[in-house]
Specification:
Blueprint: H1 2-11, E1 14-29, H2 37-46, E2 49-64, E3 68-72, H3 79-87, E4 94-99, E5 104-105, H4 118-128, H5 133-147, H6 162-173, E6 180-184, H7 192-207, E7 211-215, H8 219-225, E8 228-233, E9 236-241, H9 243-258, H10 262-275
Parallel strand pairs: 3-7, 3-8, 5-6, 6-7
Antiparallel strand pairs: 1-2, 1-4, 8-9
The chain binds adenosine-5'-triphosphate.
InterPro entries: AAA+_ATPase, ABC_transporter-like_ATP-bd, ABC_transporter-like_CS, ABC_transpr_TagH-like, Bact_Polysacc_Export_ATP-bd, P-loop_NTPase
Family: Belongs to the ABC transporter superfamily.
GO molecular function: ATP binding
């Protein structure tokens, strides 16, 4: 048993290693114990005080090739912060993140222009991702096909609905077969046909041994597309495991909360966190080891 486990670890090729990462933001706050209208007005002149928001408390994770990791949790639990850290757009307050290749963040990396037509934006987006002209020409039809925009591809992007724009971004961002793809909610805007198309595109990416991170409030989307799920709450990593176990526990948690049963929700939160087996990232040492 132990040998099987060690063998699996050896076979797994890590793509993202999150080593004791935490994130705090310094934010201006107008809160005061003794706030009155007059001192609120005087604070308008003096400026607000600063507080620290603990967006992510220290956590470690190792994600490997072929994994599609769903990130779930209530509003403000730290999901977007975690994806921004993995993408390298934000630096963690403490800890380090290692990635085997540049992570592509859907919708952010494709710097598209609203005045240009969809087809022109395809070229712009591909150039921005570092493709040469020949590769763009090879991929062009496939990108238009994945976007499902039909003749709307020739219209300016500013005339698109938000769902149409995110379909185009999805098609462009996934055309590079990124080794690490981060998707934050973008898939929820599409219609059923697009969801089907994006689902098959994500499984293609996984088959090419890539890694996908998907933030979503839709447990249906997570169940359809992910092989592993992590649950964040209040900046804490509460669960990390198979899709069924984590999503069903999270559903119980949210239904306790919506029924006003905060005690049971807290108990479930506590138990989940207690049973989490924390990842430990060991220092890599070189040279001869002593006995
Ligand atoms: N740029 C920022 N400056 C200050 N605080 C921030 C910033 N970004 C996020 N936060 C805070 O960090 C915490 C986590 O936010 P984050 O956006 O990561 O949550 P989330 O789980 O993605 O939420 P949602 O489901 O609502 O998108 C929140 O308390 C939020 O207010």
């Amino acid at each position: 048993m132990q040998n099987d486990h060690s063998l699996n670890l050896l076979k797994a090729r890590p793509t993202v290693v999150i080593d004791r990462v935490s994130m705090q933001y310094q934010v201006a706050s107008t809160h005061a114990e003794t706030a009155t209208t007059s001192n609120r007005l005087s604070r308008l002149r003096r400026g607000a005080s600063t507080i620290t928001v603990h967006a992510l408390n220290e956590m470690s994770l190792v994600v490997s090739h072929g994994e599609s990791v769903g990130i779930i949790g209530r509003n403000g639990s730290g999901k977007s912060t975690l994806t921004r850290l993995i993408s390298g757009r934000t630096r963690p307050t403490s800890g380090s993140i290692f990635a085997s290749d540049t992570p592509i963040m859907l919708g952010v990396n494709a710097a598209l222009l609203p005045d240009l037509a969809g087809d022109q934006n395809v070229i712009l987006g591909c150039l921005a991702m570092g493709m040469d002209r020949r590769t763009i020409a090879e991929k062009f039809d496939d990108i238009v096909e994945v976007s499902g925009l039909g003749d709307s591809i020739y219209l300016p992007m500013k005339s698109y609905s938000s769902g149409m724009a995110s379909r185009l971004r999805f098609a462009i961002a996934t055309s590079v077969d990124p080794e690490i793809l981060l998707i934050d909610e973008a898939l929820n805007t599409g219609d059923a046909q697009f969801r089907e198309r994006s689902r098959s595109r994500i499984s293609q990416l996984r088959d090419h041994a890539g890694t996908v991170f998907l933030v979503s409030h839709s447990l249906g989307t997570i169940t359809e597309m992910c092989t592993r799920v992590i649950w964040l709450d209040g900046g804490d990593l509460l669960m990390d495991g198979d899709v069924e176990t984590v999503t069903s526990t999270y559903s119980r948690f949210t239904s306790f909360l919506s029924n006003g049963d905060h005690a049971s929700a807290q108990e479930l939160r506590y138990k989940s966190r207690e049973s989490l087996i924390a990842t430990q990232v060991l220092e890599r040492t070189t040279g001869r080891r002593s006995a």
